[in-house]
Amino acid sequence: MVERPHIRTDDPTDIVNRIIDYTGGDIRLALPLGLGKPVTILNALTQAAVDDPSVSLSIFTALTLERPVPSSDMERCFLEPAMDRLFGRYPKIGYARMLHEGTLPPNITVNEFFFLAGRWLGVDAAQQSYISANYTHARDVLVGQSPNVMMQLLAKDKGRFSLSSNTDISADLLRFRAEGSLDFLFVGEVSGELPFMPGPAEVVPSEVALVLDGHPQFELFSAVRRPVSEVDHAIGLHVAPLVPDGGTLQVGIGSIGDAVSHALLLRHRGKIAPLIDDSPFLALGDETAPFTQGLYAATEMLVGGLLALFEKGVIRREVNGAAIHAGFFVETTDFYRRLREMPAERRAKIQMMPVSFTNALYGDEGAKRTARVGARFVNGAMKAGILGDVMSDMVKDGQVVSGVGGQFDFVSQAFALEGARSVITLPATRMSGGKAESNILWHLPAVTVPRHMRDIVVTEYGIADLRGQPDAEVVARMIAIADSRFQEELLDQAKSAGKIPANYEIRAAHRRNSPHTLSGWLRPHRDLLPDFPLGTDFDDIERQLLPALAILKNNSQSWQGRLRLFWSSLALPRHDREGEAMKRMGYTADPYLGEELEARALRGALRMIAGKTSGN
After folding, report:
1. pLDDT at 75 (0 to 100)
2. What local confidence, expressed as pLDDT, does residue 324 receive?
3. pTM of the shown model
């Protein structure tokens, strides 16, 4: 290797040429996941490799961020007018575009260990180059490839640099380089939108060999919050009383994570006990009092819900001067702004760390055990087996939806730490082909967390505490939180396999697990359970349209559903914002004879929403 340069420039082409000169054109690139990608330099480097086949570019990364591609004309009508507002003017990443098009040249390879959920289904090249690894092990897989370049988006403050959103693997790689076990060129691109995270995330400026600064900057990717449904809120209300005051918290991304954080905020405000008391479902937690000691967060991902808990004083128990230790973040534009505008001394209470710290107990294990008391690790799953195993990362044909990420890391911690619990959350059902399907199955086609590490599973219908239980009891407890439409089939399968006594009967209290019962519980409390408890970038009309579009999607997959939509458009009363909603989607405000079927179906979905709201 030649001596590392120290260059500051506003010319990405100059940086690319220096990278090629430094590596001799054999580039093994360590690229942060998610938000930390320096897209300007990355795209310039990728294009240089496209233009010159003698350049070899091997990229190791995860979570390539892309704005969504509408899957239907209806979705396009909804998304396209709001794309920049919702997702930011985030540029397309060159290698991702070529992967989708099938045009990535053979001298460029891309290996990811975690996908943007669902984005790479059916893309053979991405599926074939996916590397399955726990987040804590992904670093070692990368080190095994001997990276000679690491590139990252950096925050800057008065000449100082911060890894900001992505200390996850980068911080360890820089440590290895300082210790002499790795040798690579560190290249940075400055972003004025990235919040400057101090402390462990800071980088000595001399460590960054090439810095792109002064070039026109791109807007950060914004991860749009989805509506929190009744199902999500019910799961959050079940989880919140499981969290002990003075304990440790980790929460994953998504609407269920938002619901859990909101339920914890309700608890802190003294508002949760009446909702828990009214619940007709199986509940186990009894912690409903406000937080007096507060929580400490040790989390892979700093999500919006954790930031809200920190801002409201729920997360405030400090460990080594920090109330939150986190590995990375990808969130909304508002989230980035709040971090940027937070007083520096307050922001210092959020310390970005490598995932080797947040996701594992190795290294200063005694201190971590002392800090992570009463830990609750809350993560979502796609499906769960009736014997307690969990599927979170792929579908039955082996196609990867997302990845293992850190889920298994946190399940392992839950078993390693005294008093800790892993809480796996999932809706009891999903819609497929216009019909409800159970997410609790007799047999899973793939397993992310094996049944010998079963712990707590939560659906909207309650909590199944599985740790240390014999198989027959596990089966009974899982059936008790399944949707009642599928309980008998699950029970028959368990009896046929001899996993539960032949004379076992489901208790009457657990036979009313239905959407109707769920709505009966939560509808009187809807003022406490908003669709967007943590805020949203959707405007008022878009918020009206979102549930209607969900109904439209679910019903459009069967002829019975399509008939239901058409009948609703004729027989049900108008939605009070129907005209505005229809115009937002490019249709006329009022129905007319000969109205196109897509418009009629949307109108029917809006009227179904109006009927639910009015109690019809």
Report:
1. 87
2. 98
3. 0.94
DSSP 394: B
Distances (CA, A) of 543 to 460, 524, 540, 604, 613: 23, 21, 5, 17, 14
Q: Identify which of 484, 395, 507 has the alpha carbon closest to the alpha carbon of residue 436.
A: 484
d(CA 600, CA 615): 22
**pLDDT below 50 — which residues of the chain?**
1, 615-616
The pLDDT assigned to 558 comes to 83
Do β-strands 324-328 and 202-203 pair in parallel, antiparallel, or remain unpaired? unpaired
- In our burial notation (b when 16+ CB lie closer than 10 A, e otherwise), range 222-256 reads bbbbbbbbbbbbbbbbbbbbbbbbebbbbbbbbbb
Residue 612 has what pLDDT? 67
Looking at residue 1, its pLDDT comes to 47
Q: Where are the beta strands (DSSP E) in 521-612?
A: none
**What's the token pair of residue 303?**
């999500």
Max intra-chain CA distance, the chain: 76
Residues, the chain, total? 616
d(CA 193, CA 350): 18
Model confidence pLDDT, tens digit, residues 197-217: 999 999 999 999 999 999 999
User: Both tokens of residue 58?
Assistant: 């091997």
pLDDT value of position 609: 86
Task: Give me the amino acid identity at 343.
Answer: P
CB count in 10 Å sphere of residue 406 = 28
Place of tokens 């200063």: 364
List all residues 6 or more positions away from 473 whose beta carbon is below 8 Å from its beta carbon.
Answer: none
- DSSP conformational letter for 528: G
Give the pLDDT of residue 613.
57
Residues 6+ away with beta carbon under 8 Å from 221: 34, 35, 65, 67, 87, 88, 90, 330
pLDDT at 616: 46
Helix intervals (H) in 289-428: 304-311, 333-341, 344-347, 355-358, 365-371, 407-416
Measuring CA to CA, which residue among 458, 392, 465 is closest to residue 425? 458
Q: DSSP letter string over 395-431?
A: -TTS-BSS--TTHHHHHHHHHHSTT-EEEEE--SEEE
